[in-house]
LOW QUALITY PROTEIN: hemoglobin subunit beta-like
Amino acid sequence: MVELTAEEKAAITATWTKVKAEKLGVESLERILTAYPHTKRYFDHFGDFSFCTATEGNPQLKALGKKMMESFSEGLKHLDNLNYTFTSPIELHRDNLHMDPENFKFLGSKKVIVLSPHFGNNFTPALQAAFEKLVAAVADAMIYKYY
């Protein structure tokens, strides 16, 4: 499990209060669907995503992005116990959606990529490193319950 320092936790928490969760969520999902086309199979019921612009403005994708980021936000309140924070989403993705757990790593990297332009120069290398550690820890927590 990845360990965050007290300074990293404080920086993440302070930055996260400024995040527009719905916007970040849908942008992250749009990127994962574009960068990793195999993930589209989990969203067949959302419409035809066979071309890049199909994700733009999709209300179901927007709602999922918001829900996903609300869950992530809740997890930030329990940084010292991530393995048990994400029990409900893990069960949904493992038991109902049969999602490949590697996709959590892909999605985490897209969250960090999307954060950068929102914060510009304030998204320092140290802050990026802290978020990279965080999304790795969240992915590990999600994968932990698979096995």
Residues 6-144 form a domain with the Globin-like fold (CATH 1.10.490.10). The first helix runs from residue 6 to 16. The helical segments are 6-16, 21-35, 59-76, 82-85, 87-96, 102-119, 125-144.
